[in-house]
What we know:
The protein is of the alpha/beta class. It is built from 18 helices and 11 strands. Strands 3, 4, 5, 6, 7, 8, 9, 10 and 11 form a 9-stranded mixed beta sheet that branches. Strands 1-2 form a two-stranded antiparallel sheet. The longest helix has 16 residues, at 35-50. The model has no long low-confidence stretch (mean pLDDT 91).
Amino acid sequence: MNVREKAVVLLSENEKNGGFINLSLNEALKENFSDVDKSLLTILVNGTLQKKILLDFYLKKYVKKDYEKTNVKIKNILRISCYQILFMDRIPPSAAINEGVKIAKKFKGAFMGNFVNAVLRSISREKDMLLKEEIPSEINSLVPKYIYDIWALSYGETVANTIAENMQTIPKTTIVLNLAKFKKEEILSDLKKEKIEIDENLNLKTPIDLTTLETFKKGEFFVQGNSSKMACKIINAKENEKILDLCAAPGGKTFNMQISADNKAYIVACDLKKSKTDMIRKTANRLNLKIDVLENDATILREDFLGKFDKVLCDVPCSGFGSIKKKRDIINKEQSDFNELIEIQQKILENSAKYLKVGGTLFYSTCTLNARENEENIQKFIENNKNFKIISIKDEFLNAIPCKIYTDYVTILPSIDYDGFFIAKLRKEK
Length: 430
């Protein structure tokens, strides 16, 4: 299976079955493709998902029958081919068309190959006209209308437009150095020996399968996004503190907190599924960090946690509308897919409050941009829990972040280096 076929399969399986496209892509990148092909696969999958709504807008002009009823693999052949023709100048349109036709014939026979050929040649002929066409704002935002409307309702149309624009940037892979076990100079030297280039913010300059590196295998670093890192700075884990990370997978905040505490905090990391707790445990072992990992349903109160912790991180399951540039498959979801989330978030938040000691600190965070999941959840919690006080985090949050909204909480807006993120800090007064 060549790289374009693989892109079609990944996109089609994700569209039909859901799941996380980034995880499927990471697995595909472990296959026997050249570095050039791995780069192309990443661009095709992420780029096609990023511009899926716009690509469908164009394709509907050329597919005479009901486009929505077109076979999912054929739609994705058309999408990745159209993406190459319109947005990848280094690939000749003829090559994109020929490869698309070959895949269509292989997957669905000669008739569909001829169909794909006709559509793609029409698009190629009219490329300049299409790219000059004025695109409706709801299409140009590259997200479903309901997501754009949530942003506009939460923050106003001006901010919503900024969010939509910044969601189109290419996400960076960012690492955290394991300074609990290695010296910074040692890690940077080892990365240099493996020809890994990083910038001052620890962003990788070129994409690579990090799991193949000796520095990775030795536990010298792990991957964590910049917004998630900033949340850990706010939490400010310290030696001897008892800390609960209630919805911990994949574990980035857990590991970052323990490194901040020089591996001397008592940290319990929980998640719902064994597959997720196994993932946390595996990485903790690789990093040689002391983490107690438990399988746990955060919506059900645990008696053995009551009043036990100095700090609780409540990074709840959310709609993910702040991290679309990393989780492009979110745009495949319907609004109804998120109907139960707020009730789940509120249950987890109420339970987490009971796990704190008096004087302890509760941190509520999401990777979404939706006032109902963020500010409104905190406001409702405070109304029902008069023994908690909101602690402003303006002064301790790094001013270097380019796009943010300050109230008593911090909302990070997406930019070239950051995902959308929300965090609130509350203290248990009595």
